[in-house]
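Per reviewer request, we include the raw input and output of the structure prediction for the construct analysed in the revised manuscript.
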Amino acid sequence: LENVNFSLAFFGVTGYSTTKGFTCGEEEEYKLKSTVIRKSDQVSMLMDSSKVGKVSTFTFAAMKDVNYIISDGRLDASIIKLAEQYGVDIL
């Protein structure tokens, strides 16, 4: 994957917290996601409100690494404000 370039990548998340970032539970998943993020022009996180506040084993991204969050429209105002600070569009 180090030789592959991505225009837009979509990622599911196991959890998100303001202190730990976007997390997943498997080492191979972490390696794949973090590599693709580095090689992507734009990054989209698929994250509904039930993922907020949950932390899994591996952090694969921070809010600063993301361009879009695709959600269920029920994200907490503090998450929306943080996303706005980093220029992340919430869809």
